[in-house]
Amino acid sequence: MFILFIHKINFGQVVYETFPPENIKTIKFFGSKATDNFPVVKLGEKITLIFDDLDGNEKDYYYKIDHFNHDWTPSGLLKNQYLNGYDNIRIENYFNSFNTLQSYTNYRLEIPNNNINLLITGNYLIKIYNINDELIFSRKFCIYEELANVSSAVYRPQNMDRFNSHQSIHFSITPLKGIFRNPEKNLFVHLIQNRQWSNEIKDLKPQYFSGRTLEYFYEQSSQFEGGNEFYFFDSKDLRVTTPNISYTNRSELYEIYLNVDIPQFYEDYTFIQDINGSFEIRNIMRPGNPDIEADYSYVYFSLASDYKLGESEIYVYGGFNNYQTSDSNRMYFNPSLGIYEGVILLKQGFYNYKYVLKNGEVINHNAISGSHALTENDYLIFVYFRDIGEQYDSLIGIGQCNSFNLKN
């Protein structure tokens, strides 16, 4: 009975991604678009994981894959129910860096491959282990089938206190065949902004039934803060300055000093073409493969401030660190200059970033950037369904919309 009790506790726990150690950098995990923060692909399509080990000594790394329910609790399925083949396999595709100041080993894994194929849809977690079977890091991904059509659009809120700061997602779900059985109980919907799970909206129930179509025209329940466009810089050529880079320097490694950022909270909204928090590795200093020929540099961030925060802390936040907070991306106040400063080791490329405020375990994403209804954001709508007799939640449809075409 004790073993069964522990088993139920473990299978009720929500899984979280594990943050990598300092020697693991530049984790890229994507499907068809290299700028995706995490893969959302159809069953059978390829997903790619790339990362660097700055120790540069060709270590052995292994991967395991687990399946989860819509709420990221373990589904309880056996491996052979969602995998064809075997996991806990060594990553065999790796190369050492070439002609760089910072040496590293670049690892690349593609799924499906000769060892493994995914059989069913839903939520997954890939976990990377070292040779001692110690967990190094983990990342979420999603596999779906088009069994339902999801129509969606972004609207300005009708409540005036949020009219200029929020965005409301309206959507409808139609099964391609038949009807949903007991959708209020068996259908689960999750909404996320810019591929970030940290501020997801869930537990929405259909408001209306229009034939076979379920309508979700909530006002406040499906609203996100619009936020602001991301800051950016491009380090594809470390020999020259580019927009938002003040100057560069070569020491033991390259050093990049960004312009001092002004908190966007104090400014009116201005449209800036960004990639919604993501990043892309690229290098024009040397022709070839940027995965192994792009170099690393220390990037110096600075944020203007006329006061020191109390118990709150400021972090540099973006897809490059998987929207997580740690000592490596924390900012520190410099009273002599009146700015917050931070240094992060990053690979050459194009980066989006923002500054977030953290108090305890609570992150305020827009306290520094401000929030505007006109901000361009990407939204994903995940539709899960557990049919009668099924043991897991199938991901039966994905809706996508962008606030660039904001509707009133």
Description:
The protein is mainly beta. It has three domains: 2-144, Immunoglobulins (Immunoglobulin-like, Sandwich); 148-226 and 373-405, Immunoglobulin-like, CATH 2.60.40.10; 231-364, Immunoglobulin-like. Helices cover 5% and strands 44% of the residues. It contains four helices and 30 strands. The chain has helices at residues 2-10, 79-82, 183-186, 290-293, and strands at residues 24-30, 40-42, 47-53, 61-68, 83-85, 89-90, 93-96, 105-111, 116-118, 122-130, 135-144, 148-155, 166-175, 187-193, 196-202, 208-210, 213-216, 223-225, 231-234, 245-250, 254-258, 279-281, 296-304, 313-317, 332-334, 339-347, 349-359, 362-364, 378-385, 394-402. The longest helix has 9 residues, at 2-10. It starts with a helix and ends in a 6-residue tail after the last strand. 35% of the residues are buried.
Notable characteristics:
3 domains, Immunoglobulin-like, disordered N terminus, five-stranded antiparallel β-sheet, 30 strands, about 5% helix, mainly beta, 4 helices, about 400 residues
Mean pLDDT across every amino acid position: 92
The total domain count is: 3
Q: In angstroms, what separates the terminal alpha carbons?
A: 57 Å
* Structural class label: mainly beta
CATH homolog superfamily of the largest domain: Immunoglobulins
With strands numbered from the N-terminus, the spatial order across the biggest sheet is: 2-11-10-4-6
Just name the CATH architecture of the largest domain: Sandwich
| Unreliable residue runs | 1-10
CATH topology value of the largest domain:
Immunoglobulin-like
Backbone shape: globular
Percent helix, as a range, is under 10%
CATH top level class name of the largest domain: Mainly Beta
The count of β-strands is: 30
Largest sheet: 5 strands, mixed
Strand content: 35-45%
How many helices? The count is 4
Radius of gyration: 22 Å
